[in-house]
Amino acid sequence: MTPAGPAVTIAGGGLSGLTAALRLGQRGYRVTLYEQKSWLGGNLGSRPMPDGEHLDVYPHMYLEWYANFWALLEEVTGQPKEARFAPFSTVKQLSKGEFPKFASLTDMYSPWHMFQNMFSGVGTPADMFVFGYASIDLLAEKFNPTVTLDNVDVNAFLNTRPYMTQAASDAFDSFITRVWAIPSYLASAPDFRRYLAYSILSPDPAFWLPTGSGYTEVIDPLVKAIEAHGVTVVTETEITGVSCAGKRVTEIGLRSTRYESDSGTWAPLAGSDRTETVENLLLAVPAGTLSRLVRTAVTPDQQSIVEEAPDIAGIVRLRATQVPIIYLFFKHKLDGIPVEPVGLFDSELSLAFTDISQTWRDVPAFAGKTVLAVSSSDTSGLPGTTSLADAQAMLEELSQFLPFRPGTKWGESPDIDWEHTRYESNADSQLFINQTGTDAWRPHASSSHIANVYLAGDFCNNDVGMTTIESAVTTGLQAAKVIVRRTRHGEPVTIIPPPRNWLYDLAYVWLRYAWAPSVAAASVWSRTWSFLAKGCAKRPSGLPWLPAPRGGVPGLQWAKRPGGGGSAKEDPEGGDADGPSGGRRWMS
Ligand SMILES: Cc1cc2nc3c(=O)[nH]c(=O)nc-3n(C[C@H](O)[C@H](O)[C@H](O)COP(=O)(O)OP(=O)(O)OC[C@H]3O[C@@H](n4cnc5c(N)ncnc54)[C@H](O)[C@@H]3O)c2cc1C
Fold this sequence. Notes:
Elements: E1 7-11, H1 15-26, E2 30-34, E3 46-48, E4 54-56, E5 62-63, H2 67-77, E6 85-88, E7 90-94, E8 103-106, H3 114-118, H4 125-140, H5 154-159, H6 166-180, H7 189-201, E9 207-210, H8 214-228, E10 232-234, E11 237-245, E12 248-260, E13 265-268, E14 274-277, E15 281-283, H9 287-293, H10 305-308, E16 320-321, E17 325-329, E18 342-344, E19 351-355, H11 356-359, E20 371-376, H12 387-398, E21 422-424, E22 431-432, E23 453-455, H13 469-487, H14 502-514, H15 516-538, E24 557-559, E25 568-570, E26 585-587
Parallel strand pairs: 1-2, 1-15, 2-10, 7-18, 15-23
Antiparallel strand pairs: 3-4, 5-9, 6-9, 7-8, 11-12, 12-13, 12-14, 16-22, 17-20, 17-21, 18-19, 19-20, 24-25, 24-26
Helix pairs in contact: 1-8, 1-13, 2-8, 4-6, 4-14, 4-15
The structure holds flavin-adenine dinucleotide (FAD).
The site of flavin-adenine dinucleotide has 33 residues, from helix 1, strand 11 and helix 13.
């Protein structure tokens, strides 16, 4: 059936744009969706490979509480999630020299698994108790605030806690860096609190991994459903500018694109510029692109969005970061790799990996091989000279954890299947970072200044907060909902709110006080042990009755980053314990 409703032009074929397109298509809107790349799905999408396989921008974890996402998926596939995803509750951690001894963390922030995680081997039991208690303490802030969380980062919150130990604070930093790709001293504490609250309410299983690529399991069925509702999808076409007149957007600029492998970005095709009038416009592009588009009219004599709606200018404050990835095909099976996602402890580049040859089913190219998706969430340690130098740096660090020969340059290792192995800088698919203080600048789905422009994307204001698949779907639904309301066409769009339970919120307050004596004892134990270990390390012979902790004596670890945490390593120069703050410093 040809749609006959109001026309909507959508810029951006990521999950938020696709979600909105589906809901509008279902209601008979005449939807045209423009996507800059040759493939759809944005950050949840997959790059097509020469052999016909698809490799994800990033192998995502799909949390159990993503209610809108799961509902959407079941709707477009007609199958329960079990048909395409496998359940998990545990993540693994590996320290240098420990392979194949992986530590397990089950539902890592949950009070219900706190005692199990205390003995996971990730840290000392005392520090793991402090780590778990700090999550409860942050959750208790909702009903029993002790600090004003607005504009407070996770690190600052932890530092207000008298019981906090350096090791527990470092563990927070390490996990947040790997999951959010920003250090805890930048990560928004209110967003993190909400993320914890939702995760704890849906613990079993904590998350799901797809049994194939994001393309086969999610994006392809979604695109087919959209097209079945008459949505026109135009790829390799980007929106270059938006013009306004009389409090409405009137025209957009368009041009064709092509991929430039040197820069890993999509470049304009010369001579392909054109314009198009619009009735309603939904911008579902990344924050950086949106910031540029709202300032750019199609021609200089026309009005831009920001001239009509100056409050949108603040989105320039929103930041995103690259998370490069290697799809590492070994020539053989590497025994001892777990099926769960693995974080590498003390990794300078914040490396993590998932063995997709165990999670994906029936991929001929994976037969008889281990295939790891290896990502780096802290690119500040990469050489940054060439893509291959960055890739080789990741490989060399990985070889300090796993038994293989990295070679001295990309393409040299005899253990790797170089025909299939790929490195992607992901320069064209960046992760929005939930940085402290940016909440106020996250835009809403519609503007009170301009009647027919709408916004969607994980960075837009939404109840989920953290950058997730669920926030992308939610903002797509929010945009579709307001379009339907304003244009008065079709059934209202429904959105499932994130899980909430005030009894849990009260329980966190109770646990905060009930476990306060225990956390004080754990903190004293950790500090005393660390102090003695430091003293022990200064003596040539050490104290024979004091066990050396995993990864070396805490007093001998060296933090490279101001603000603490993350990649700790032995100080090559033997610096001083009370070194200047902001530079190298010793930590206990
Ligand atoms: C490395 C990484 C790891 C992640 N891990 C997880 C995870 O484990 N679990 C989880 O829940 N979430 C994770 N996320 C977050 C999740 O992928 C995103 O929140 C979600 O996919 C964002 O969808 P979106 O539609 O908001 O934006 P995007 O996916 O960024 O989509 C925007 C689209 O707009 C297109 N575009 C850009 N400019 C233009 C233009 N001018 N004209 C037309 N089109 C344009 C882009 O090509 C893109 O397709 C991760 C994200 C990244 C980057």
